[in-house]
Amino acid sequence: MDTTKTPIVLGGNVFGWTAGREESFAVLDAYVAAGGTLIDTADSYSQWAPGNSGGESETILGAWLAERGPFPVASKVGQSKHRPGLSAENIHAAVRDSLKRLGLPSISLYYAHFDEDGRPIEEIARAFSELREEGLIEEIGVSNLSAERIAAWLDVAERDGLHAPTVLQKEYSLMERGIEADILPLARERGLTVQTYYSLARGFLTGKYRDGAASVDSPRAGVAAGYLDDRGRAVLAALDEISGRHDTTQTAVSLAWLATRPQVSGVISSARDTGQLSGVLAATEVKLSEEDIARLDAASAA
Question: What phi and psi values does residue 107 have, to the nearest 5 degrees?
Fold first, then answer.
């Protein structure tokens, strides 16, 4: 994989949900064979699926790692129904639970998944820094906290000499550009990088959702179809034009556009089978021109 183009991070939310063990192993093997560098999961994946309780994704990853050997993994704490919230006690317990499921001595990148109302940022910052000191995690990440809370965390870390977050994870796509107002400027100012999730707007940017098109078999279909308004149609038209010019797919162009954005270091995308993964990895072969980028910027402007 040419990470100078589109650095694809493999999303693990489908493992144990829409992808069973066999399908997950096949996707993971294909991702590694393509030169992939990071798998993203969370302790809560996929507790929303019927019959699941959470930790399924990490468990499947752990089984794969046991057979294939160590590989960089990002995980998260805060949303598991067994380990909810960001108290220091919970953070320390949750990381050990995740390490046990993954069978790893340390987690490459560990995120605070969502904020917790009323939880002092000093407590969260110190707990994550302690995990770094103990060698249980290698980098600290922040996902879904406000720009104000992220800035406060960084300020506390600087003031108290703590290990600071280095990576932010936020929803970002051609259809969801809200982080350009606050998160991206903050990341640029404070020297952090950004990894994006829902990078295909829950599947809308694959081009499958159109007027008169057949229904799509996906658990996210309802939300994705909601993007089909005038702006969504304009984005699809631009994707059709540019993907045709590059002889590639709308998916590849959408992900390649994200890689051009300031501070973006990783574009997270999941795949429930190797066919979907091939479509995602096609983005690594796309190099958009300035004209392409301007066309997409204009079409997706709010």
Answer: -105, 130
Per-residue pLDDT of the chain (302 residues), as tens digits, is: 333 458 999 999 999 999 999 999 999 999 999 999 999 999 999 999 999 999 999 999 999 999 999 999 999 999 999 999 999 999 999 999 999 999 999 999 999 999 999 999 999 999 999 999 999 999 999 999 999 999 999 999 999 999 999 999 999 999 999 999 999 999 999 999 999 999 999 999 999 888 866 566 565 556 788 899 999 999 999 999 999 999 999 999 999 999 999 999 999 999 999 999 999 999 999 999 999 999 999 999 96
Q: What are the structure tokens assigned to 107, written together?
A: 């987690």
Partners of 270 in the beta sheet?
11
Closest CA to 58 of 47, 71, 69, 45: 45
Cα separation, 131 vs 301, whole angstroms: 40
Name the token pair of 162: 């703590």
192 near 164, Cβ under 8 Å? no
In degrees, rounded to 5, the angle at the alpha carbon of residue 92 between the alpha carbons of residues 56 and 169 is 65
Query: Contact at 8 Å (CB) between 205 and 251?
Result: yes
What is the distance between the alpha carbons of residues 27 and 273, in angstroms, rounded to a whole number? 6
Give the pair of three-digit tokens for residue 183. 């998160």
37: region left, alpha or beta (phi > 0 left; psi from -120 to 50 alpha): alpha
Cβ of 141: how many Cβ atoms within 10 Å? 25
* Cα gap 287→231, rounded to integer Å: 24
